[in-house]
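A note from the maintainers: we've had questions about how concatenated examples are separated. There is no special marker in the raw files; a new sequence line simply starts the next protein. For clarity in this README we add a label.
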Amino acid sequence: MVRRPDLGYRDEGVNLSDPCAFDTVRQPFGTATELPRVAYRSLQFLYLEDEAVWTREWVPVGTIHEIPEKGDILPFTLGYHGVHVQRMEDGQLEARFNMAQHGGCRMVPTQCQQGERTSCSFTSCGYSRDRGPITDVAGQDDTRAKYQYLGLRPERLHPVQVAQIGSVLFLNIDPDGDASDLAGGMDLPAPVMRADAVRSHRQWLEFDANWKFSGQMLARVDDLSNSTNRVMQGHRRASDGTRIAVQWVFPNFVLLTQGGQTCAVTLQHTAITKTLFRVEILSDGPLADERLAFWQAELAQAGADAEAWQAVIPAEPARDAQTGTQTAPIQTEIAAWWAQNALITRFERMPQVDSDIPIFRNVEHYLI
């Protein structure tokens, strides 16, 4: 939470925290409208997602291939909260809030509160860009980097819940989060579940599009075979005419599977209009050049499509010819329809907070 939730979330004349504002979005597919454009350009909407999703959901942050050795650390910023997961000496996993939540700043600078991850030497800060995994490399001293995350007494840091399904790591910073239903309906593809699968490729890509557009373009399907409130499954035709199995684990994990290969993409928003694709390809063995080219073409196409959707967001939607009111377009992408319903469901489940703490109060002298 980065704002007082009792004040609500409002922007462009819309009460964003009121699920009724999205009644048309939750209609059956074919009649449901797209999310309003404010959802893809509003800082207030980003704060709402932080409150309802990133701080309450079991969020995929990558796979165990990121931290294979003892002492390895995987940073991942959930909303505006810097956390990490570490492999301990006994091989178990522990997750914690980072020691330096706001870097070396006594308060969060204004330039860090604009919805865009900043490039800062304090990579552990909840407002700066994440770095890659911290691993022990011969001849390299990572003492300073590890200190930003662990401090001198990591056992005193606030714990974060961590869970593992197959090779996928999930974190949840909500102390009341229940892991009992985490695996419900989550039939992950074989390369992700098999212990002997290898990670044959790793890459980070960034596109100029909101994370929701990025997800719906990566997970676009021609047919929907199964869906729950957490997972969507389907198939689509790839650029070369073959079929790909698609799975979207809400909110930010998309799995594309063909044969014995799975391209796993962990989405992370780095700005309101930017998304990082943290890509890992899991397979039976080494990846042939033509297969790598195939997956990279799929990723590039999804990123380009997401950027095209984002590019039209500043434009005003069409108006009804008779009434003159703006009309929301019908949602034609079934993956997007599933995701927007999953998102609004999280808004509904978000606790409603009342607070009697005054926003403004008289200045009090420190001797009184």
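[label: protein 2]
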Amino acid sequence: MLNVDVVRQIRVTVPDLHERIKKETGKSNKSVQVLATEAGISTAYWYQMMKGERSWISEEVLEGIEKALGVSFGVEFDSSKEGD
């Protein structure tokens, strides 16, 4: 029997996320290099986020950025699953 993976994707639009990341980065006492490392992304990726050069990011990247900055941007995904 062959197993098949089913992937569920949910898209959430976050207005001005790049500005919010830029603001929180400025308030942080950590360097961009440290923040990016803590978020699990490259420094270049972090700068792209602050400049608004990315049109989408994964949920995992957002969670890493929030954790590194110690903030929540209030993005919530419907995590309910059939059968829960």
